[in-house]
Amino acid sequence: DAGVTQSPTHLIKTRGQQVTLRCSPKSGHDTVSWYQQALGQGPQFIFQYYEEEERQRGNFPDRFSGHQFPNYSSELNVNALLLGDSALYLCASSLGWLAGGFQETQYFGPGTRLLVL
Amino acid sequence: DAKTTQPTSMDCAEGRAANLPCNHSTISGNEYVYWYRQIHSQGPQYIIHGLKNNETNEMASLIITEDRKSSTLILPHATLRDTAVYYCIVLYSGGGADGLTFGKGTHLIIQP
Question: Mind spelling out the 3-state secondary structure of chain A?
Fold first, then answer.
């Protein structure tokens, strides 16, 4: 059973550029959440996608956008990169709204490490 | 989500039980306690979760106090590979998967 996969593993960009990160959820999962983890900090929730729509969003600017595809995979896009966007970007998948009644556990991928120069 | 308080760091000898405390004094009745851990430079790994009863799985045990204001994660026989940052998270159980709010966690160091 394949777990959550992310690509690429590492990425270097320069300020002002745009980046796209990709995530494939665990088999059977339909909800994807994205997190940003700066060095020495805990992960911070960016947003969550279910049924190809953004369902919840954390305190991140509009430069951060996403997409979910019919096969439940997802992309995170960041425009106009800043030095402060350098971080580990984590994707987590879960069985979302169909479960109902209680929280479903989120399973994380290995992350994409983004360095902005 | 309710806030949690955890010690910044803890040491434990290899082979001994590691007991990691978490305070969540403002937890409400429909909020679960979740534990994740993050080994250096990897994605967080789910460990266990519970509502009010004690829980056990192949990785750990979770003891929740009767008033639900605190909990303890127990790793029964710690190994060097258990060295990681452990996060205690309180999460509403209203259905669906919400964004997790990670604090700073406890850095557990297993000593040989």
Answer: CCCCEEECCEEEECCCCCEEEEEECCCCCCEEEEEEECCCCCCEEEEEEECCEEEEECCCCCCEEEEECCCCCEEEEECCCCHHHCEEEEEEEECCCCCCCCECCCEECCCEEEEEC
